[in-house]
Amino acid sequence: MYRKSTYVWGERTNAEIEALDITLLNAGDSVFNTDWKLPEFWTGEVWTNEHSAVGTAVKSFSKGQPIAWYPDGSGGVALNLITTSNYYQFAGIACRDVVEGGEAAVGIKGRWEVRFTSDVTRGDFYVISGTGSVSVGTASQGCVGIALESKAIGGERDQLVWCSVNTVEKY
Description:
1 helix, 42% strand
C-alpha cells in the first residue's frame, strides 16, 4: 500500500523554514522545502539537503554568494567568500545567510539562487568576478554555472537569480 512520505515539519517555503524556532528542532528533523523542491534535514546546527555540503564559515556571507572551500586544519571544511584569485576552490552557492563561525550549507549542484549585480539573460554563463560576487561571462576558465532565468537588475543591485551550479565537474 502506498503511503505519502511524511516530514516532521511538513511542507514549507524557504522563508517559513528560516523562521522556525531552532530551539524546537532536533537533529534529524525533516521538512520539504517547496521553493527548492527538496527535502531538507536539520543537522543540529543547519538545514542541509542532498544538493549541498556543510562546512564552517570563516566569515559571514549572504544567501546566493559564491563560496570557496578548503581544509580547516582539523579534518573539517572551512568556507569563505570566493575571489577571482581562488576561483579553482569554488564550492558552490550559499544556501542561506550565515554568520562567522557558524555552520553553513553550500549548494554544490542543481538549481540555486545566485546573487547578481548586473542584468542576466537565461542561458548566460556566470563567472567569479570579485570577492563573493559573480557576473555574466563566457564558458571559459572560471565559469561556475548558467542562468536559468532572465532578470533586469537595473537600479536594484544585488538580486537573486535562479541558476544551475556547475561544481561536480570541476577538478
